[in-house]
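User: My instructor asked us to take a sequence, write out its structure as tokens, and then describe one feature of it. I'm not sure where to start. Here is the sequence I was given:
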Amino acid sequence: MNEYYTYAYLREDRTPYYIGKGKSDRAYRRSRKDIQPPKDKNRIIFLKINLTEEQAFNHEIYMIAVFGRKDLGTGILHNRTEPVDTKPQQPQRTEPVDTKPQQPVEKTPEQPIPQSQPETPEQKKRKRERTEAERSDMRRRMDSAGQAQGLPEYA
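Assistant: Let's start with the prediction itself. The structure tokens for your sequence are:
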């Protein structure tokens, strides 16, 4: 059933400060001690609705990546942890585990770890431009979402 959604808490200047996923009234409840929903409920917007839990989880990850996290110095969001998948965990094994190997393990020669090349200034510039374009596109989408809910525009 598609009962999940993603949402954003907006500052007074209409930029997001928190991205989350939820169902029911999750967007209006306190999520953590240090992240409060805005008192003005018009500053809570739903980014996507009618999602499966997996779709909501993936969209939350995407939106956090687009806007970046303050604690990592990559953006404007106060999200502090990586999004956590809330699917139930597999039951833990209750019988003892035999730790002795059944057959000898063959050692294989270690392969050298390939060294990645540092980014060139041109690659860094393209990456920065792509990130800025993605953020600009998301701001445009959030503006139109706010207007669709009858919320005032911001400059």
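For the description part of your assignment, you could build on this observation: The helical segments are 53-67, 121-148. Try explaining in your own words what that tells you about the chain.
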